[in-house]
Amino acid sequence: MLNWRWIVAGVFLVFVIAGAGISSDQMTSREILSRADMARGNLEGVKWLVNIVSIENNTGQSRSLNVLARGYDFLGIMTEPPKVKNQKIIMIDHNMWYTKPGLKKPVPVSSRQKLIGGAAYGDIAATNYADDYAPNPMPDETINGELCYVFNLKAVSKKSTYDQIKYWISKERMVGVKSEFYTVSGKLFKTALFEYDNQIVIENKPNPFISKMTITDALVETNITALIFNDNKLVRVPDSTFDMNVFSEQ
């Protein structure tokens, strides 16, 4: 079934990317967030490999997942280490399930649930900050020499991965460069820096795409988790990808 919300959003984003004679300073907060979201997902379909390496309390862990995303739904299949191979995570319209070989029925999980280290399940997905959060614009700030829009974001649903986010978006590149994540009570619990050395081509134009997310624990700064995104490309994701009957099959 067609999801008209994604079609309308896709038309809007193509319009923005094409330029349409609109400067970034004339864009609304939601439009700015939509532009930044595109560098961390795609409405038509995209796949990538994410390698996660975590050092927590001097103990190392790792995970590798193949991810297929369309809109803001995604399917993640774990490939490494061998003990988690073929475990799966799926998100459909903000609802998330987990399954593994031998499990009779998928188990509902939260996007906030810890995957490994500082990485939550929701961190491997495409972001939809434009719809999932209410933005409060703050004064511009400079991060690593880049002038940035700054937003305080508050979740509009309990299904959002985070309750509150302070988010810096490069004015020149229109990508998110830093986030601070807060509990509902306003306590900072981790920060993230983003890199965009990957590209995807949209409308024959190369666009930056996320290559790395580095998460640092706010209380123990030596606890660091890096998500490295590789092999990203636009693909046609079939409807069957998000069929729960197919997902349950092993």
Description:
- By secondary structure, the protein is mostly beta strands.
- The chain has one domain: outer membrane lipoprotein receptor (LolB), chain A (Clam).
- The protein is 13% helix and 48% strand.
- The protein contains 4 helices and 17 strands.
- The protein has helices at residues 4-17, 29-38, 129-132, 244-248, and strands at residues 46-56, 59-70, 73-80, 88-92, 95-99, 107-109, 114-116, 119-120, 133-143, 146-155, 164-170, 176-182, 188-195, 198-202, 205-209, 212-217, 224-234.
- A 13-stranded antiparallel sheet has the order 6-5-4-3-2-1-17-16-13-12-11-10-9.
- Strand 1 (46-56) and strand 2 form a beta hairpin.
- It starts with a helix and ends with a helix.
- The relative contact order is 0.18.
- Residues 1-22 have low confidence and may be disordered.
What is the number of beta strands?
17
Quickly give the CATH architecture.
Clam
Total separate domains: 1
Q: pLDDT average, as an integer?
A: 88
Strand order in space, largest sheet: 6-5-4-3-2-1-17-16-13-12-11-10-9
Shape designation: globular
Largest sheet: 13 strands, antiparallel
Helicity range of the residues? 10-25%
**Would you tell me which CATH topology applies?**
outer membrane lipoprotein receptor (LolB), chain A
As a percent range, the share of strand residues is over 45%
Low-confidence stretches: 1-22
The CATH class label is Mainly Beta
CATH superfamily: Lipoprotein localisation LolA/LolB/LppX
* Secondary structure category: mainly beta
Gyration radius, in Å: 18 Å
Termini distance? 25 Å
Helical run tally = 4
Give the SSE order as H and E letters: HHEEEEEEEEHEEEEEEEEEH
